[in-house]
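The instructor's notes for this session suggest beginning with a concrete chain rather than abstract definitions. Hand out the sequence below and ask the class to guess, before any prediction is shown, which regions might be ordered.
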Amino acid sequence: MNLVLWIIYAVIALTATVFLGLREFHMLQLNGYKTPEHSRWMKKNARRYILPAVLFIAQFLLIPFQHKRGLAVALLIVLCFFNAIIALLNKPGKKFKKPLVYTARMKRMMITFGILIAVFYVFAIINGKIFVQVDAVSGGYEETRWFISALPYIFVGSALYLTPILVPLSNLINKPVEKAVQNWYINDAKRILSECPTLHKVGITGSYGKTSMKFYLDELLNSQYNTLKTPESFNTPMGVTITIRRDLKPTHEYFICEMGARRVHEIKELCGIADPHDGIITSVGPQHLETFGSIENVVNTKFELADHVKAKGGKIYLNGDNELIRRKAPEYPNAVLYGLQEGNHYRATDISVSDRGTEFTVTAPDGETKRFSMKLLGEHNVQNVLGAIAYAHGTGISLDKLTLPVKRIAAVPHRLQLLDKGGNMTFIDDAYNSNPSGCRAALNVLGLFDACRILVTPGMVELGAKQEELNFEFGQEAAKACDHIVLVGKNQTVPIYNGIKDAGYDMDNVFVADSLNEALAHVNAYQTDKKKIVLLENDLPDNY
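After discussion, reveal the predicted structure:
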């Protein structure tokens, strides 16, 4: 009976270990494999680890009762029950927004994790054998009596309860190997770039707007040149490396490289890989303050691209309407400013915005003017398109030849993308937005529509000490622009809720949902005589 109980306990514990391990690996992957960042995430989500922590301590209660079969068996049954709960809570099958990707790195970490778990089970078996031998010498109970000993259960249970620690530990153990692997791939990418001496490389960075700029610039340059851009959000060292090794061909004339950063010097690292001749900085603002630490660090990191380009004698194109950028611009004589305000080298004026698109006039540094029209909504999109026009014009493409490519520019997926679902509802998908400036711009776009304006949002994250303040202000602004507001996440959206309330909004028109699916179901059921225009502002990843 004791042998059977131990087997049942071990099987349940191992199943729970696998399921919990997969969930922890998923969160680690979403946190960019960064152990410090993952540790901060674990601290924020400490409640999910309460049960394993309690059971880790509770299992030691077995020791005093290891010779009292009835009490020991009863306690083991209780532990089995809670282990089964851990397995059920973490079982695969949930539809994640971004599921776990079994990359080569992830597989290597899982192997290391498997070895660590195996060590616990080996110790459990060794302890059991020792107990059998001692028991036999002392003339004690039957051979299977050793399973009543507490230590085999404690070793197996500890493998489960310590899984949240063993997963990041696997990442730390593998760090030297992963660094060597990454360096090999990065050096190979550099070799490939060195074999393309005529390739012109342009880096794009910014707190927001960089992905949109990349797509817009690719559309304009592609009208005359053979271009390659980093796909989707491939803006990390390995993302850039993969793009170069997988997609770059000798026939490409321009390589448009998006550069993302969450920490100081990460743009410098990307410049060391892509080695851009020119650069574009779309914006600098309070994003990823949690990892940057201060707005000064954000500014200096973004301008690492400008420093690299300056050293190479290239041009850096800067959003001159951004106060932080404009303050820094005089340090770079190679800077070309673009924006809507006076004093920019490339300026957009006479902007006409409707729910069908935007028209504007561009004035070049030499005084030439040209009227442009595009399908994109909002004045803020004019800034990014203007930056793309400025750079493309600088390569030798005339403003006249750029009018047609500008008309062809489509909204980047999940960035103020207009999705007409037919019937009584249209979505403005701005799910990839998570910064104060972008949120304000999205609310302005929502205000263009003569309809029932509905906002669905979980708010903004990774804003450090300013997160509560900025979300409070977002709530105040939403109250002015929206007829109905749906907040996603009761705890996350408290500052937004308070901001809405502070603005004197009718709180009967505010609904707080537990999930995005519940929010969308509420929007679908919401009754109104007008057509519903639904702004989906930000969509937090699974680790929030």
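Then share the key points. Residues 134-148 have pLDDT under 50 and may be disordered. The domain at 417-537 is CATH 3.90.190.20 (Protein-Tyrosine Phosphatase; Chain A).
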